[in-house]
User: Which sequence fits this backbone?
């Protein structure tokens, strides 16, 4: 009995030693710090609008409230929301953050030195990442080669939105194994404004989900022209990616076109996807970044066919 007691005591002591040597969850995975930039130098979306008609200005816009609450509820991150790019998107300030998220429009006042640090040093670090929401693709929407750095970051820039905010669209998920896509399943419907893109380079990105034009009311851009006495209507359709990702050094990039409507920022699927994207950037959950241009090629052909179908 004495021998058994001694053995048990030794085993218990060994287990206690193992448990005590393990770092706590908080020590092992500290909260990420996110800089959420929501400045509008072009169109100002309601989701990032702090202004109140005939009232006091709000401290936070709906998208900012959603991100702040998501951080609080998950315990995963803290977020600083800013609409002052010039003051906060600087080399010195970026050093305080692990992730940067954009819901922006127009040509932002980013100094060359800060841009170079962000792209060439900050973003390439393990555990660092950039998330673009909706009109982050309506930022630096120009044909100025000096803005190519941003096109590489965002993956594409706005060229229109045939699918308006009130239309129910169907979206197909290509990579259901990516953690940020699991909340959406294989296919889902949502009311939101959907962009299509200029400066889209399929060879650079891993497409995660696309608009399924076959199952959408709007098939593309409608144009009309006179042919004799008749007015002939034609529809231009193409591949419309909705979310994608890529690696950038040891850092990661995630873009999601959704988020125009304020209601999207209370949609559990969208919020769960955003949480998973943050965990993915933190290297806690899996998600491929290998470019898959064949998906874009296949879906472009499908989209053109679906758009032409009567």
Assistant:
């Amino acid at each position: 009995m004495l021998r058994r007691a001694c053995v048990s005591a030794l085993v218990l002591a060994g287990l206690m030693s193992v448990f005590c040597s393990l770092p706590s969850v908080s020590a092992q995975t500290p909260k990420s710090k996110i800089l959420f930039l929501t400045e509008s130098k072009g169109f100002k979306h309601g989701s990032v609008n702090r202004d109140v008609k005939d009232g006091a200005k709000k401290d936070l816009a709906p998208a900012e409230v959603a991100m702040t609450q998501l951080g609080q509820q998950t315990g995963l991150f803290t977020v600083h929301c800013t609409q002052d790019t010039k003051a906060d998107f600087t080399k010195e300030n970026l050093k305080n953050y692990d992730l940067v998220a954009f819901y922006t429009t127009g040509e932002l006042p980013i100094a060359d030195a800060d841009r170079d640090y962000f792209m060439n040093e900050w973003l390439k670090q393990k555990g660092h990442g950039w998330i673009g929401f909706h009109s982050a693709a309506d930022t630096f929407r120009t044909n100025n080669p000096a803005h190519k750095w941003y096109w590489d970051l965002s993956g594409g820039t706005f060229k229109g939105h045939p699918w308006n905010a009130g239309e129910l669209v169907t979206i197909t998920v290509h990579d259901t194994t990516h953690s940020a896509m699991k909340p959406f399943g294989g296919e889902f419907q949502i009311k939101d404004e959907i962009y299509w893109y200029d400066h889209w380079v399929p060879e650079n990105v891993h497409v995660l989900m696309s608009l399924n034009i076959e199952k959408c009311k709007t098939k593309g851009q409608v144009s009309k022209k006179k042919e004799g006495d008749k007015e002939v209507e034609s529809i231009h359709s193409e591949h419309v990616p909705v979310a994608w990702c890529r690696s950038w050094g040891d850092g990661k990039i995630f873009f999601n076109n959704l988020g125009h409507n304020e209601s999207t920022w209370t949609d559990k699927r969208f919020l769960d996807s955003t949480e998973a994207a943050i965990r993915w950037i933190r290297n806690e959950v899996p998600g491929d970044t290998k470019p898959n241009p064949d998906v874009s090629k296949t879906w472009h052909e499908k989209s053109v066919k679906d758009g032409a179908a009567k």
